[in-house]
Amino acid sequence: MTTNYSNLPSSTSNIDSATSTKNFFDTYYQKSISFPTAAIDSTIAYFTSRGFDLSAANTIAGTLLKQANIEKLDVFQLLDTMNGLNELQLSRVVSEILNYSRLKTSILGYKVDNSTLNQYEIRNIMA
User: Fold this and answer.
1) What is the residue extent of each domain of the chain?
2) What is the pLDDT along the chain (127 residues), one digit of tens a residue?
3) What is the pTM of this model?
4) 127 CA to centre of own chain
């Protein structure tokens, strides 16, 4: 049996060349990231157990996993550090994490206790 070597694609292949070209350019500016299933499931479970809705937990988990990947941190360590936070503190941390991943023209706000701020600083900021 002889083997034919060629630069042409195999004739038994039914793949359309336009499909691979479209897939290439559709994901040209998107970096593909993958996470272990255990990390995804445990992050979603952590936020749902803390009272977040499932869709919110999915969004927060995805953002947290991406940020942990960028900063080269273990997501389980991040979740362990959040265990000591109450609901208000956790909400504040989550809004900060989401704000870092959003466009600068759209941010999430939260109320800040003004009693801890220095009155001279407030006067200088407001003036």
Assistant:
1) 37-114
2) 566 666 665 655 556 678 878 877 877 777 777 888 999 999 999 999 999 999 999 999 998 998 888 888 899 998 998 888 888 888 888 888 888 777 777 777 766 666 665 665 555 555 4
3) 0.60
4) 38
